[in-house]
Q: What sequence folds into this?
């Protein structure tokens, strides 16, 4: 009983997770995913410990090898002695609502490493290739002492640009045969990418992808102090190019820190997180308004053309 109470205490859970207890850390992440009432005291307690981890968002079309690249990066960072967290956002199971793929098969070589934490999170219908709970999960991993956190998106095409608002460095993975560079540009990745990894570079067509991306980057206007995304050729399955990729990510982090841009990016991330939580709270309150019982009636009138949605919302709010 006493042990159970101790484990439920936010400070004790956080302390255990900081000491490397994977069960305590998994429980903290579960609090986030389940929107537990215990989450608020946990986040209050962990807030002073955050701000140290470098968050790398890893995105790209399905099939380009994102999980293989993530696994190779984890291997490289572990060689440097760093503690690594991985949030792999998966499609949701239509039956359970949980992560469809589970912990990524290609990263299972790290499953027994107590300095690596890998968690699959279900998107649960949330648009943007991320799980709604991702920002709070990042805070947990940051606060318990991870040096670097990789966030791998579902890979949903144009919507996955949301990762740009969440990460310090956005790594976009492309590969020959999985949508040409024109399609990549249409998806908006030229605007969000801080580093490009042209994966499966040992395959035919890789040089054409690099050439086309270079041509499009050359058309963009960069000032003397601007960051120009580097193109790194990788073959993640064999580890080729991964050291260069990790170095490019490190250079981007240094560039952000040198100009105060890292703080700006993180403040923008905090603003987005606060807004999302506030809107979620307002939606919850809306369901508790005195007029909420009239919602079905108002929806029926809107569908019948007897009322416009703005007037219906006004009636809902004004109901006593």
A:
């Amino acid at each position: 009983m006493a042990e159970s109470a101790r484990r439920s205490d936010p400070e004790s859970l956080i302390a255990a997770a900081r000491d490397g207890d994977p069960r305590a850390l998994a429980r903290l992440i579960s609090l986030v995913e389940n929107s537990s009432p215990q989450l608020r005291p946990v986040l209050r307690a962990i807030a002073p410990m955050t701000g140290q981890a470098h968050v790398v968002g890893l995105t790209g079309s399905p099939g380009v090898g994102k999980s293989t690249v993530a696994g190779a990066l984890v291997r490289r960072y572990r060689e440097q002695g760093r503690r690594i967290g991985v949030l792999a956002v998966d499609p949701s199971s239509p039956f359970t609502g949980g992560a469809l793929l589970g912990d990524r098969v290609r990263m299972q070589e790290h499953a027994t490493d107590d300095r690596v934490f890998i968690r699959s999170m279900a998107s649960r219908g949330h648009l943007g290739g991320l799980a709604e709970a991702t920002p709070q999960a990042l805070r947990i991993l940051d606060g318990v002492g991870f040096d670097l956190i990789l966030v791998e998106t579902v890979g949903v095409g144009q919507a996955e640009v949301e990762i740009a608002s969440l990460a310090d460095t956005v790594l976009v993975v492309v590969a020959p045969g999985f949508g040409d560079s024109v399609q990549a540009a249409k998806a908006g990745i030229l605007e969000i990418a801080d580093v490009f990894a042209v994966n499966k570079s040992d395959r035919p067509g890789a040089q054409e992808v690099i050439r086309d991306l270079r041509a499009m980057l050359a058309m963009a206007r960069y000032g003397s102090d601007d960051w120009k995304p580097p193109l790194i050729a990788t073959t993640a399955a064999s580890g080729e190019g991964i050291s260069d990729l990790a170095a490019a990510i490190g250079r981007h982090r240094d560039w952000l820190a040198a100009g105060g841009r890292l703080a700006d990016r993180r403040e923008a991330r905090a603003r987005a997180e606060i807004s999302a939580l506030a809107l979620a709270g307002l939606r919850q309150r809306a369901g508790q308004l005195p007029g909420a019982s009239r919602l079905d009636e108002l929806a029926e009138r809107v569908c019948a053309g007897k009322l416009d949605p703005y007037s219906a919302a006004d009636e809902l709010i004004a109901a006593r």
In short: The CA atoms of residues 51 and 224 lie 28 Å apart. The chain is about 45% helix and 10% strand. Confidence is low (pLDDT under 50) at residues 1-6, 92-103, 124-130. Residues 261-286 form the longest helix (26 residues).
